[in-house]
């Protein structure tokens, strides 16, 4: 038995005093792929309050496929996130790519994201086991469920019980969608482990027009939450523009999820 599989009680992962993954309420994290400017994040926070969403996302340190692509605003991006966080009283989630960034990211964010490319960075996972912040662990690009659960186990066994698993699509032969959203994995992970499981339909599909239907499907199969990319001017996103929803579409999507969540 492992810590991830041991308990038959659902683990609650707390994002704030009022928000927890794995409870009754669906937790929706929304925001741009990359933090681009203060005004961008202000607009996102203001507009998404209408939804509402439970947390904002935005990358300050970006794991770009090409080293020549924009790598994120770094510390400046984190400062923008923490200002928006306190002005709007909303938790923020952002990626940490290395052990050396942990202290800084933990000082600005409510939840630390481990990206797909780092799912088996075991030294990073061990270090995150010693952090007093919840961790959003994304499934590796081609990780089996066993590997995914064992990655979570690295964090749990080093002392941090607050881990949320995120299915974000896996590599396959068809390039029509960016990845293949594995909803079977969501159901299986909920049965295999006591950890909350959320879905990222943005990176799973890579195409904005596919996101609303798959977000609804994810809620219908029992996902505890969603993380979705959106932008004030989707076409102008510095990264992942093709999959960014407009803020209006994001608000509308959140509203359409409530009846499904209530029925599950
Ligand atoms: C992201 O969420 O910004 C991201 C880079 O996702 P992934 O690690 O799933 O590719
Ligand atoms: Mn992205």
Keywords:
binds manganese (II) ion; two-stranded antiparallel sheet; single chain; 10 helices; aldehyde-lyase activity; 8-stranded parallel β-barrel; Aldolase_TIM; 264 residues; TIM Barrel; alpha/beta; 37% helix; transferase; binds phosphoenolpyruvate; EC 2.5.1.54
Quick summary:
The protein is built from 10 helices and 10 strands. With 264 residues, it is α/β, with parallel strands linked by helices.
Task: Indicate the topology.
Elements: H1 3-6, E1 13-14, E2 20-21, E3 27-31, H2 38-48, E4 55-57, H3 75-88, E5 92-95, H4 102-108, E6 111-114, H5 122-128, E7 135-138, H6 145-157, E8 163-167, H7 183-192, E9 197-199, H8 201-205, H9 211-220, E10 225-229, H10 247-263
Parallel strand pairs: 3-4, 3-10, 4-5, 5-6, 6-7, 7-8, 8-9, 9-10
Antiparallel strand pairs: 1-2
């Amino acid at each position: 038995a492992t810590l991830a599989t041991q308990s038959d009680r659902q683990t609650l992962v707390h994002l704030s005093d009022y928000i927890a993954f794995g409870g009754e309420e669906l937790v929706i994290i929304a925001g741009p792929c990359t933090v681009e400017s203060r005004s961008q994040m202000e607009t996102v926070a203001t507009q998404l309050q209408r939804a509402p969403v439970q947390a904002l996302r935005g990358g300050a340190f970006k794991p770009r496929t090409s080293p020549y692509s924009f790598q994120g605003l770094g510390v400046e991006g984190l400062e923008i996130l923490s200002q928006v966080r306190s002005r709007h009283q909303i938790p923020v989630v952002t990626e940490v790519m290395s052990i050396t960034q942990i202290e800084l990211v933990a000082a600005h964010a409510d939840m630390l994201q481990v990206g797909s490319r780092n799912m088996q960075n075991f030294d990073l996972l061990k270090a995150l086991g010693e952090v007093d912040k919840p961790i959003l662990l994304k499934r590796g690009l081609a990780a089996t469920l066993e590997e995914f659960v064992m990655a979570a186990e690295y964090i749990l066994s080093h002392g941090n019980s607050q881990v949320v698993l995120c299915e974000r699509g896996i590599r396959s032969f068809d390039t029509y969608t960016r990845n293949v959203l594995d909803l079977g994995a969501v159901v299986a992970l909920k049965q295999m482990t006591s950890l909350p499981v959320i879905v990222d339909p943005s990176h799973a599909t890579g195409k904005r027009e596919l996101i609303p239907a798959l977000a609804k499907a994810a809620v219908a199969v029992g996902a505890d939450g969603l993380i979705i990319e959106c932008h004030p001017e989707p076409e102008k996103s510095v990264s992942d523009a093709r999959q960014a929803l407009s803020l209006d579409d994001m608000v509308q999507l959140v509203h359409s999820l409530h009846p499904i969540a209530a029925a599950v």
